[in-house]
């Protein structure tokens, strides 16, 4: 709709329509990042200047170093905010650096020293210290470009945000592969702790609901049999016979529980015999091939055993297979396991069959877990563990 009622002349009519702002979402995000550089750089510079001034002024006192350590922890939070901003507005894929170990009771000086020499905190201090002139420049150029030079602003914004990306990568990303590895190990340690706690709860539940309950019933039955021994020997004999059956069941449950913790056949004879024992209990025929001239560490053997056990249980319950195979061999300093079945396939890591838990357990000991299960089958699971000699 237009308010003009004059008929334009032919020259005006032939002129193309004026160029309008048509920036894509990525360009607008980059412009928003450049405009936000000024307030963020002012905040960072003021914080860093105050932290360094206060720390230097009070360094001769007992509170100087703890205040500086706390300031470095605060700078980490500024760095975290900048990484978040770079992810959201610049599309930058950047990992979080590993955290400083939490302070434990009576371990204040260890925490203080770790905080004072924290490379992540000091790199963030440097980042915030040098950013103020850059923040003023990018804010001015972006704001001016929106009103004066907007046809070329996308190119200017791309160039300036590329410089921002380089600064974030250079100063705010994890410093090296070792630091990233530390972060992974911190995460894996949590998985190990959670898994161990779950296993302990399972053992406690199995003992309480299984063998313990049977032993309590057995004690009560034997007590009643003792009371009837003189007055009704036949009834007492029947009670003793029933108690004998309860003892057998309790022993079997304890054996099953012990096998679930660490089977004796694995300890005594190794993976070949232990995996053959698992295969014999599977509901489909399983061919086992173990090509090992030595034995890995006991913990690695246990993980390998329970990995195969869980996978064969899934074959029995879910795969609808007619056959399966288990192959175990050593390649350099790695133990490799491959379990195949000719079932219906379609297994997924998020399928609720415990496969995701297996992947987490292997990852916690620097292992790998690869699932290949197309619809219609076959399903192949390859697991890799560190060897770690006994």
Q: Give the proportion of residues in helices.
A: 55-70%
Structural classification: alpha+beta
Rg calculated over all Cα atoms: 34 Å
Our estimate of the beta-strand percent is: 5-15%
Question: What is the end-to-end distance?
Answer: 84 Å
Order of helices and strands: HHHHHHHHHHEHEEHEE
Features:
elongated, five-stranded mixed beta sheet, Heat Shock Protein 90, disordered N terminus, Single alpha-helices involved in coiled-coils or other helix-helix interfaces, 5 strands, 12 helices, about 400 residues, alpha+beta
If you had to describe this structure to a student in words, what would you say it looks like?
By secondary structure, the chain is of the alpha+beta class. It has 3 domains: 25-175, no CATH class; 186-261, Single alpha-helices involved in coiled-coils or other helix-helix interfaces; 265-386, Heat Shock Protein 90 (2-Layer Sandwich), CATH 3.30.565.10. Helix content is 65%, strand content 9%. A 5-stranded mixed β-sheet has the order 1-2-3-5-4. Helix 11 runs antiparallel to helix 12 (355-364).
Describe the structure concisely.
Helix content is 65%, strand content 9%. The protein is of the alpha+beta class.
